[in-house]
Design a protein that fits this description.
heterotetramer; A mainly alpha (384); B alpha+beta (169); C mainly alpha (320); D alpha/beta (158); B: alpha+beta; two-stranded antiparallel ribbon; 11% strand; D: Beta Polymerase, domain 2; 5-stranded mixed beta sheet; two-stranded parallel sheet; 4 helices; 19% helix; globular
Chain lengths: 384, 169, 320, 158
């Protein structure tokens, strides 16, 4: 697209940096190898002392072109990819793709499979939030919480391993069902886990949430007004931390969520603490959902009768699910063939990160790290 | 008044720090949760999905159930399975007399897995019409070169047999 | 004919160097073990029984590594910094009385000597950051200078309050002036002074939650980003050696030094010192890091005024 | 749902959709030069931009904008067909579309006039061909995917 000469000529190749640095400022590359950019995000910063004048994220260091792979693979083969877009909440991506195909093909899953999907997806959300919690505190300099979170997460991953067969890159949803059933012993184990995490959450609160130093690091930084969220299309806890009770599970109900009793936590604070509190409450809400789903799950098949190769009629479909980071959208166009004609993956972190340039202006370097952490980014999801 | 509020806030903050120390102190005295790997192992391997392996016939532990249809190879998103069919044996003189063409055996000649490409998705296991593939529970898998991960699954099936069976053969 | 005083200092210096080096090794091990157990894992476990040889092996590894100097860095400043970081620590240990007669250098102004050399550390951090030719290091150096200079004021004021109480700058006299029982120690007579000293000590040694100059998640590794091998090793050792120094001084000034119930002696001194070090380590593994402006606010808006108030309080006590 | 606010624009064709089947409530095919006014209408109506994507059909390049809103959810799809693979940028109306448009530039080589910084986002700057471009034989007619859309009159035919 650009020749080598053009690239050399442009130098800083982002809109915020094309004029180069000013006097008395420092251009700083945070990442792609930096402890708190969680993977390979690169943020170009222009700083005056420790104050950030301009910031611009540079993406693409872990780009894998999933959308092209979708066009090259069959529908069933592509499910594997969906476990690898967002490695922390892989099941939501599974669901977005499988749900889109099911919606277009009008082949709904069995009722038991719906419940199993809800249970695994919500457990996966808990594991994602636990990891975010630990990693965010790592960004803020506290080392111990992540290991307490991992202690709980380990139990969770054992359960998910029994239910899906993997511990991280889940690909356990099939068209019309799921791959593995839940035994009574597993049911018992999930109930025990719910009780265990409920016991532990007060400890999380008194060790971290109430901590004076932590509050100093997250209060009153990174204010996202609702209008800013609308302009950039931010969703998920980032939006709910600004006081908008928008959750795809309620806004565009799918699966059995309408029948489950849970609230959409919000916070009017709009700052990093608001987003933090929303996620901590979501942990509890997800536990409630899992508890209800485990109690209500009907008996029956876990796989609807489907042809070996799903028949997807020509047309378009947009299926959105609520991931741990926000609205995950799968826009599928089919020409009636064996693989998608065009698949667009809408990653919530992509939109959530795009407001970072505006959000971080004028903050301290340490605050930028905190804000970046409070957006809960998963870089492979942004780069796809 | 403002000063007073601030001092109260600071005092509460200091107390929250004491609470934090109390929690980490308590955990300091509690036993570890680590599993010391080479000496101990985790106990949930039943659902672990390692590389795939062939399931033998119920009555013959040397022959795989596989009917060498190649469905798994086609289902694989990463093209890491190669299956070749066995050729029919040369007809015996009697068969030539009777004009019968000997049938090729169902089980495959070779069944290779390129584990360097595999992403353990399980499409092959799900698609197999003969239920002849399953995930192994082999967690101790390491090698010095790429070649160590090109598996000949039929050889693996045979090497898994107990020693006395091998000797008898 | 060698001056016996000089000989005594030389022998003591060697002894102190050995003590500091051994302490650094032991503390590296202790830090990792305590961190491990706080986080419900064993910490170093494989090298030697319960991983006891781990710091030794790590030290060997660091010595075996190549020393690289970054491009366009000033090699003299770059390599001077780690050496300068470690050197003053040994000098700071000279006047510290471990027991009634166990002191390397009896000085009337021992506390002044320690404070003078403690200020040296910031210079080496500053040089390391400047000499590295790395933006992160530079930021770390800027932070360390602002932090250390700011915190030296309340530190001095709190030390001064003790000097007021005892009427002496001699560490042995200050130690001896405190009784055997805890409520006779300066920490309980002058609690505010002790708390201020302790907070400042954390900041002066760049320990969490005030580890801003090396703030891993913000500045990658701050001032020692570019150091490899033993260059990094010296900074690392100096951090622990500094901890020993500030905890020793705290023990002398506030915790009654070698005094203790039943049998006073150097073991009481070491016990108190290691208890303080344990607390510092546990704090590191409990709290998040503060932000830079909060750090300076804490110093200028809280610690400095409080230290002054404390000084007034101490003078009143002394008068009464 | 007649009287949709997008119908105040000269839509080439539009259709009310069943959200249970396609996930959309309303879809419209508008002329490329109307994109900015459509975006402004959506902005005024409180919608946010979900994503911008491009797909290729036999008639040309199709830019698809998905809007949704937080208050009363209901996704609308706004499409425009261009024969020269270029559209107007809406990055000043919805700053969030900045990256989406750059992504389309990466994948399809689509240019967005008025974009402040149209350079590759995910691909390296010296990437050769846009990876998602389809061969001519691989393209399908517009109506295969969007049965409600009449084959629009190209400017020449009009």
């Amino acid at each position: 697209m650009f020749t080598k000469e053009q690239i050399a000529e442009r130098g800083f190749y982002t809109q915020h940096f094309e004029q180069g640095k000013q006097d008395n400022t420092l251009i700083l590359n945070m990442g792609p190898q930096h402890p708190s950019t969680h993977g390979v995000l690169r943020v170009m910063l222009e700083i005056d002392g420790e104050y950030i004048l301009r910031a611009d994220p540079v993406l693409g260091y872990i780009h894998r072109m999933h959308e092209k792979m979708a066009e090259a693979k069959t529908y069933a083969q592509f499910i594997t990819n969906m476990g690898r877009v967002d490695y922390l909440h892989a099941l939501a991506w599974n669901w977005a793709f499988v749900g889109a195909v099911e919606k277009l093909g009008e082949t709904p899953p069995t009722p038991r499979a719906e419940y199993l999907r809800v249970i695994t997806c919500e457990l996966n959300r808990i594991s994602s939030h636990l990891l975010w919690w630990g990693a965010y505190l790592l960004d803020l300099g506290a080392f111990t919480p992540i290991l307490y979170a991992f202690d709980d997460r380990e139990e969770l991953l054992d359960i998910l391993q029994d239910m899906t067969g993997s511990r991280l890159t889940y690909a356990s949803f099939t068209f019309g069902g799921v791959v593995a059933d839940m035994s009574d012993a597993l049911k018992e184990r999930i109930t025990r886990f719910i009780a265990r995490l409920r016991d532990r959450l007060p400890m999380y609160k008194s060790l971290v949430t109430d901590n004076f130093i932590l509050l100093g690091r997250v209060e009153d930084i990174g204010h996202i007004p609702v209008d800013m969220a609308v302009r950039y299309g931010a969703t998920g806890p980032v939006l709910r931390g600004s006081g908008v009770a928008y959750d795809v599970r309620r806004a565009e109900p799918y699966s059995v969520y309408p029948g489950l009793d849970f609230v959409v936590p919000t916070s009017e604070r709009t700052d990093a603490l608001g987003r933090y509190l929303v996620r901590m409450q979501e942990l509890e809400q997800s536990l409630n959902i899992v508890e209800q789903a485990v109690a209500q799950i009907p008996a029956g098949d876990i796989q609807a009768k489907m042809p070996k190769k799903p028949k997807v009629p020509a047309g378009e479909v947009y299926f959105a699910v609520e991931g741990a980071r926000g609205k995950i959208g799968c826009y599928l166009q089919s020409d009636g063939g064996g693989s998608p004609y065009r698949l667009k993956l809408r990653a919530p972190s992509f939109s959530n990160l795009s407001l970072f340039a505006e959000l971080s202006q004028g903050t301290l370097l340490a605050d930028a790290v905190s804000i970046l952490g409070s957006l809960d980014l998963v870089i492979p999801e942004i780069d796809r | 008044m403002y000063r007073l509020e601030e001092i109260k806030r600071a005092a509460r903050g200091m107390w929250s720090l004491v609470v934090g120390l109390n929690i980490t102190g308590k955990y300091f005295l509690q036993p570890n949760v680590t599993i010391h790997y080479p000496r101990q192992e985790v106990d949930n391997l039943a659902t672990f999905r390692g590389h795939i392996e062939l399931i033998p016939e119920d009555d013959d532990p040397l022959t795989p159930r596989c009917i060498s249809c190649g469905t798994c190879a086609r289902a694989c998103p990463s093209n890491c399975i190669t299956v070749t069919k066995k050729k029919a044996p040369a007809p015996t003189p009697e068969e030539v007399e009777q004009g019968i063409k000997p049938k090729a055996p169902k089980d495959p000649e070779t069944f290779r897995l390129d584990f360097t490409l595999c992403s353990l998705c399980g499409q092959c296991v799900m698609s197999c019409p003969a239920d002849a593939i399953r995930f192994s529970q082999n967690i101790n898998i390491a090698g010095y070169s790429r070649q160590d991960f090109y598996f000949d699954l039929i050889a693996r099936l045979r090497s898994r047999l107990p020693k006395h069976v091998k000797k008898a053969e | 004919m060698i001056d016996p005083q000089l000989l005594r200092i030389l022998v003591a210096l060697v002894g102190i160097l050995v003590f500091v080096a051994l302490n650094a090794l032991a503390l590296v091990y202790a830090e990792r073990k305590i961190a491990g157990h706080v986080q419900r894992r064993p910490g170093p476990y494989e090298v030697g029984p319960h991983g006891i040889l781990q710091p030794l092996v790590d030290g060997l590894k660091l010595m075996g590594k190549q020393l690289t100097t970054p491009k366009d860095a000033d090699p003299v400043i770059f390599w001077l910094a780690p050496v300068m970081c470690f050197m003053p620590v040994a000098l700071c240990m000279l006047p510290i009385p471990f027991g009634p007669n166990l002191v390397a250098l009896k000085l009337d102004l021992g506390i002044v000597l320690i404070l003078a050399f403690a200020g040296f550390g910031v210079l080496s951090l500053c040089l390391a950051g400047w000499g590295s030719n790395n933006k992160w290091s530079l930021l770390g150096a800027a932070r360390s200078v602002a932090q250390n200079v700011a915190y030296e004021i309340p530190l001095l004021l709190s030390v001064l309050s003790v000097a007021f109480m005892t009427g002496s700058l001699d560490l042995a006299t200050i130690s001896a002036g405190q009784g055997a029982l805890p409520w006779q120690w300066n920490a309980l007579v002058n609690p505010l002074g002790f708390i201020i000293y302790f907070i400042c000590a954390l900041a002066e040694t760049n320990r969490a939650p005030f580890d801003l100059p090396e703030a891993e998640s913000e500045l990658t590794a701050g001032f020692h980003t570019e150091y490899s091998g033993m260059g990094f090793g010296l900074f690392f050792m100096a951090e622990y050696a500094n901890m020993v120094v500030v905890c020793s001084v705290a023990t002398v000034l506030f915790l009654g030094g070698w005094n203790g119930p039943f049998a006073p002696g150097w073991w009481w001194f070491l016990l108190k010192m290691y208890a303080l070090i344990f607390l510092i380590i546990q704090i590191r593994w409990t709290y998040p890091r503060v932000r830079f402006d909060q750090l300076l606010n804490l110093c200028w808006r809280w610690l400095v005024p409080l230290a002054l108030v404390n000084l007034v309080y101490v003078t009143i006590i002394v008068k009464l | 749902m007649s009287g949709h606010f997008l119908e105040t624009l000269p839509c080439l064709c539009s259709a009310v959709q069943d959200p249970g089947r396609t996930g959309l409530t309303f879809a419209a095919l508008i002329a490329p030069e109307q994109i900015r006014s459509a975006a402004q209408l959506c902005r005024a109506a409180g919608y946010h931009l979900e994503d911008v994507t491009v797909c290729e059909v036999q008639e040309g390049t199709l830019a698809i904008y998905h809007f949704d809103r937080f208050g009363r959810p209901g996704r609308i799809s706004c499409m425009a067909l261009s024969t020269d693979n270029s559209f107007d940028s809406i990055a000043d109306i919805f700053p969030g579309s900045d990256w989406h448009e750059r992504e389309c530039f990466d994948f399809f080589g689509t240019t967005f006039a008025g974009h402040p910084n149209l350079i590759p986002l995910l691909l390296p700057p010296d990437a050769q061909t846009p990876p998602l471009r389809k061969q001519d034989g691989g393209k399908v007619p517009l109506t295969t995917i969007f049965p409600w859309a009449q084959a629009p009159a190209t400017p020449e035919e009009a």
